[in-house]
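WARN retry 2 of 3 for item q-0093 after timeout on previous attempt; input resubmitted unchanged.
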Amino acid sequence: MQVADFDFDLPDELIAQFPPAVRGGSRLLHVDAHGMLADLEFHDLPGLLDPDDLLVMNDTRVIKARLFGRKDSGGRVELLVERVLDAFNALAFIRASHAPQPGSKIHLAEEMTVEVQARQDDLTHLRFPRPVLEILDELGQLPLPPYIVHTPTAEDEARYQTVYANQPGAVAAPTAGLHFDEAMLNALHERGVRMAQVTLHVGAGTFQPVRVDKLADHRMHSERYTIPQATVDAIHEARARGGRVVAVGTTSLRALEAAAQSGKLVAGSNETDIFITPGYRFRVVDALITNFHLPKSTLLMLVSAFAGMDAIRAAYAHAIQARYRFFSYGDAMLLEKSSLESSPP
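OK item q-0093 returned
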């Protein structure tokens, strides 16, 4: 398959630059298992779920991963922490006129110096003088996606974070979860829908373009995930009740599917570079809540595998015509797994 198979034209004005006025005040496009479309509002979601269903949410928390500093030479440096390795070490993308070399230092603030350790492919290993998360919280900037062009504000710090975020480590929000507020969670609970958590720390690689022509040549960035035993148990219980497993976001789906590659869902922590494309056989997830994704992106490939390429093409064409809002701050979709066998054309 070709990356060009997943391209589409999107008017710039449909890229949401700000969240809706109130959390959850979004539209919802429902795509059923046969590809039928229904225009709804996000507050309609409880009526689309059954009391025996289980929602699985990613409880990662976005960190202030963007830092600015200077090299010993005085040259400006921008850091985007991609992954926190341990208390004092992290991997980061570096933007500078000349990449700082191993053994050099980057000055973030007075008496706040980061040591450059080594290059790891397109990332750089950095050692911090104090706990990384502490420094990021003090000096860092929220890493809004590159298609959101304004400087992050206090509103972004609140709204580019799910209300159930708990585990710090992501450099991008699991954006399907941004639609949920406490009122929605309560409404789902009252309907009898159960909820469970996974953790996948979304890396900056989620915004990296696919630079090859053939899907088979693309390699994903690796990300860390954790599946609690309680979530595995909740999924087994949902299956026993006849309920569906509904992933909130592609990150939750990827964590669950990665943990089930042996054919059995396994609790624990691991790394995944799972790349889901048409032809993939889903082992765990029955329905998916997600936003609208970028052209030629790996996430568009994932939803095409899940709902079917024809259904996604039709849904995106409809969404553009109906003026839905796209990407991180945009509107949502509820996708049911295609009733047809997913296979490449």
